[in-house]
Amino acid sequence: MNQKKQNVSMSVIRRLPRYYRFLNELGKKGVTRVSSKELSEKRGFTASQIRQDFNCFGGFGQQGNGYNVSQLCGEIEKILGIQKRHPCILVGAGNLGKAIARHMPFEQLGFTLIGVFDTAPNVIGGKISGHEILDYAGIQAFYQENSPLMAILCIPQVYVEAVSDELYRLGIRSFWNFSHYDITMKHPDAIVENVHMNDSLMTLSYKLAQAEQNKPTEA
User: Fold this and answer.
1) What pLDDT, on the 0 to 100 scale, is given for residue 201?
2) β pairing state of 67-68 and 33-34
3) Residue 143 to residue 85: CA distance in whole angstroms
4) What per-residue confidence (pLDDT) applies to 84?
5) CA pseudo-torsion sign 133, 136, 142, 147
6) Whole-angstrom distance, CA of residue 161 vs CA of residue 205
7) Which positions of the chain have pLDDT values less than 50?
8) What is the pLDDT at residue 29?
9) At what angle do helices 47-55 and 10-28 cross, to 10 degrees?
10) Can you give the pLDDT at residue 191?
11) Side-chain half-sphere CA neighbours of 31 within 13 A
């Protein structure tokens, strides 16, 4: 079994899901082996970079014979921990929260959604993807009974500090945060993945602006 090396950079870790998605697509098409060169042509990384990334975990290929697609998928699953099914809750059942609850394949990505919460009386008691929307006022009792490890925060930024403080006090140390509030400022040991859709859209705007600038002018 390949052992993960210590202190692997987050840039390497963030590339693994991209490899994983592509390898899954290959597997569904019946492809059994793939070379680093073929991966590089499809993923936009150099073959050398891909080999270096996998070597951070011991390497999974055979020189001249490429990678076994199924085996490599399995190894990446182990590295990312997506076979563990970490229990999580979602706080905020507005439009964004509903979309995430309905469309995210949690079970395939290392998590199990076990509870959805909101504070709005007209929302509490409804259902999303089989989950009853619970009153956030009962979060302490729910935590004591179910011990979720991660919270998805789909609430306005003004509420994130108070909610994250309470969840942290209860024992939750991991957050998928869709606001611009920095949870780690008060809780530096928390594990936080921030999702900034505004940043992503502005990055796309930059790319479009660059493409416009580089477009050849007509004679």
Assistant:
1) 92
2) antiparallel
3) 17
4) 86
5) positive
6) 30
7) 1-3
8) 93
9) 110
10) 96
11) 17
Q: How far apart are CA 68 and CA 60, in angstroms?
A: 8
DSSP letter string over 105-142? -GGGTTEEEEEEEE--TTTTT-EETTEEEEEGGGHHHH
At 218, the amino acid letter reads E
* Tokens of residue 31, six digits: 């492809």
Taking the C-alpha atoms of residue 61 and residue 70, their distance in angstroms, rounded to an integer, is 12
Using DSSP bridges, classify how beta strands 86-91 and 174-177 pair: parallel, antiparallel or unpaired.
Answer: unpaired
d(C-alpha 173, C-alpha 171), whole Å: 6
Distances (CA, A) of 98 to 28, 151, 167, 184: 29, 15, 20, 26
Percentages helix, strand, coil for the chain (3-state, rounded to 5) are 50, 20, 35
Torsion sign across C-alpha atoms 207, 208, 209, 212: positive
Of 156, 134, 155, 164, give the one whose Cα is nearest residue 146. Answer: 134
**Distance between CA atoms of 145 and 139, rounded to whole angstroms?**
10
